[in-house]
Amino acid sequence: MLELLGITAGYEPGAPVVRGASVTVAPGESVGLLGPSGCGKSTLARVAALLHRPDAGTVTIDGTRATGWRHRAPKARRTAIGVVFQQPRLAADPRLRLTDLIAEPLRAGGRRAEVTGRVGELARTVGLTDDLLGRRPHEVSDGQLQRACLARALVLRPRWLVCDEMTAMLDASTTAALVTVVEEYRRAEGAGLLAVGHDRVLLERWCDRTVRWTEIAEAV
Amino acid sequence: MTTPEPPAPSPLSSPLLSVRGLGVRFRMRGGRHVAAVTDAGFDLAAGECLALVGESGCGKSVLASALLGLLPGNAQTTGSALLAARGPAGEVDLLTADERTLARTVRGRRVGLVPQSPAAHLTPVRTVRSQLAEVLRELTGVRGPALAKAVEAAAARTAYPSDHLDRYPHELSGGLAQRAATALALIGDAPLLLADEPTTGLDRELVDRTADELRRHTDDGRALLMITHDLAAAQRIADRVAVMYAGRIVELADADSFFGGDGPRHPYARGLLDALPEREFTAIPGTPPELGDLPDGCAFAARCPRATDICATLPVLTPGHGSSVACHHAEERVDA
Q1: Which of A75, A172, B48, B205 is the most buried (most CB within 10 A)?
Q2: What is the reported pTM?
Q3: Partner-chain contact A170 B229, CB within 8 Å
Q4: Alpha-carbon gap, residue A20 to B163, rounded angstroms
Q5: Which residues form a coiled coil (chain B) (predicted)?
């Protein structure tokens, strides 16, 4: 289970942007979280991915309560969650070629031996050609870069996926392609998904169930 | 002071913007060329909205930049884009006009730009009021006490709340920033509005509201060219749809028959529509070709379920039942 309970979080003391938010994802389940722009849903997604320390509330992953965030999170916990952000440009190191971008989590985790096989396999899955893999972010389109960012999120075979507006910048065909990749991965690995977004039609089509922001969080 | 009246609608028969054989090539290192737009052609009349749709990287935004004379130095253009004469202003070819003409008489005055990501388009260190006032001074020559009233009037045209005029761009929500940017684009009363991905990153409710507002400005007698990958927004406001693939317009159709009725006739357009979550939600296999390395024949053939040997020759945009299509295997329509 991925459980967020009573999460209050923000960026300045005394001014939370999320108050008392709770959401639970069962293993293998996909949950869509719907909310308008600026409601705090991206902040909650960052908390779920252990990237932002909440002011109050608990995050429990597979029965263990999270105590450290960002670099203070234990490696096994951090690597259990894959994250895809809304804007691939801001989520990709501009100096890395796409192949290195995808391989980075393996290298950082001391698993260099797996790089060649795993990157090639994932590149095929997300539809990146060898030519594209050799390019840097400024030489590819938003859609191509987001494909690489999704491959990077899957490279460590996470048990949980957090997709924060993964497709908001993308056209209809690329959106459908990336959602298909996520769903095939989840079928193969039994991973759970928290998909955050504002597109009701998309999330209801994609996820097992959708919850509205007003149902799971208190007003700020 | 008087706010100029919106331009009167002209009969649909005389296009305001007439684009013929528009091509844009970028010269790259090593003498290579990237053909971002090839042989694009369309007409746009006052009171009409044309939506230019396609995947990211298909050349849509390059086309918009070409119409505003904002291409980088290594770009070469061919063809013509004639903006019709209106009042004292004569006909002008947007592709060949010099920078002085474009800067002094075209941008903002005859072609208004509603930008992508308005929050980034606005000057971050100045309030909305000060930016509206500057544009009003430059474009309409209003001075003194009349200026304050003109600012409020300009803001009111896009329903921008007057109590938010003294805010800086970072203090605005996405929707208000979009309205502020649209208000700036409308000040010059340009007969042609160019909206480049005006709804990217906005949530659905805001997309609808932005689209409806743009439609309202079109109904006031302006021509609107909306460039977007958001098919839902295009469906909401467009009269006609142009589908672009690998730098070429592959289908030009009436919006009603494209989105409803018979649907698109080009297999790529069909695939794009079927990818929507409210339809099949299946992606078109493969990815678009590189614009620097296009095949001689149909650029979509490699991804196309209907491709045959004939697709090795380039299909031309051919007028047919209600739409023009560039495809050897376009869906046939039987006249009812």
Answers
A1: A172
A2: 0.85
A3: yes
A4: 32
A5: none
